[in-house]
Structure prediction request, 420 residues.
Amino acid sequence: MTGVAVLLLDAAGPESGAIIRAAASRGHRVYAAAAPAEFAAYSGELKALLTGRVLTDFTRPAQAVEEIAAHARRHGIGAVLTVNEYLTELAALVCAELGLPGNDPARVHAARNKAAMAQALAAAGVRTPHTRLIRDDRELQATLDEVGLPCVIKPVAGAGSCGVTVAASPAAAAAAAEAARTAGRPYGGEDGAHILVQAYAPGTEYSVESVTQAGTTTHLAVTRKLVTGGARRVETGHSLPAHLPAPVEAAVHREVHAAIHAVGIHDGASHTEVIVDATGECTVIEIAARLAAGQIGILIQHALGIDIWAALLDVALGRPAALTPTTHRHATVRFLTSPYAGRLQSFSGLPTQGPGVPFVRWRAPLGSQVLQPGANAHRLGSFVVTGEGAAEVEERAVALLQQVRIHVDPHTSNPVRPAR
Ligand SMILES: Nc1ncnc2c1ncn2[C@@H]1O[C@H](COP(=O)(O)OP(=O)(O)OP(=O)(O)O)[C@@H](O)[C@H]1O
Ligand SMILES: [Mg+2]
Prediction:
């Protein structure tokens, strides 16, 4: 049963680490495809878990597919997967080239490029915000008349909330357009001159975590997203499972199911972000052909008893994946951020890992520059709380968060201010 080699496109990051550990514990050899500079930055511990690697240039997809497929053939690789948002399209191309379970290479572009996504979702009858692709400020002004205010301005193929702004006025929209144009584009990506203007969807935000195997989709959980208000919507936490009224849950599942098929997800995880309005109508904001980030995999593991990492390996290997919950608990993650930019002086009061707190992570070194949260990358740390009931778990998470003290020197003559 075991022993088949597995290849990950980009092996860095916590989700990749969990998949690598799950693969190693089942006796799989694990290979990585990585950009040379990124591979050089892998920790010694990560490199030690890898049997081999192929270094390639992800900015040249045709060449990368060729090199990765050749490496895969040489090493008898029987599964290819990624949790890196920017590499999901490449993963589909490599899987198709090798005849391995994966997503439809002709359609998964629509799970990456939000202009193509809006078109594919609308064509499939999925409720999604009216979206316009624009190039310059002249088009912006004309589009604002059409889309209305507030609107959302975002990069065409961004992730991690980078360069996404909810704009409430024409002046704010012009600044937001510039922020979207100049947002980072890992691996080159789409033309930075084009940006998206999208109608604002009011309501409560959720994501749906799903796994599709051989075209059949299982929705594992609806996740409640805790998000800041204002111009920059930054996630402050996630909780699952969210229990929606049955008709609302049915509407959410219906839209998400249609979205998954519209963007060609055939074998793999998906993370679909939706907004449910006051009348229970569900709008799909975006869909990604990968497992959710932000510790949602850990929440699934603790709340539902599903080993999502093993399941994703099984899907990639074409083996039946175990996707039925074995527990019915609740789990939440809270992200730790700084309220203003400056130099990190100290922090204290982090929860201790133990019963009901299975995960605590701090990633900002003392003395480093920290930013007011404007994107997911600005998180300083996070912790997960689990337990039997939602109320008890959420209360504990709030209480633990209140004990965390983050001291940041804001680069002024002011003394160091304690920040929560
Ligand atoms: N059309 C919209 N209506 C209302 N809110 C929106 C809309 N589009 C985006 N947002 C808000 O902005 C956030 C980030 O937008 P979006 O998900 O498109 O960006 P992203 O870079 O893909 O983020 P991530 O990778 O963190 O999911 C959303 O989670 C939501 O809070
Ligand atoms: Mg999003």
Summary: Residues 201-328 form a domain with the D-amino Acid Aminotransferase; Chain A, domain 1 fold (CATH 3.30.470.20). The radius of gyration is 21 Å. The pocket of adenosine-5'-triphosphate (ligand 1) is lined by residues 129, 152, 154, 158-162, 164, 198, 200-201, 205, 227, 233, 273, 275, 285-286, 376 (CB under 6 Å). The chain has four domains: 5-98, 130-198, 201-328, 331-419.
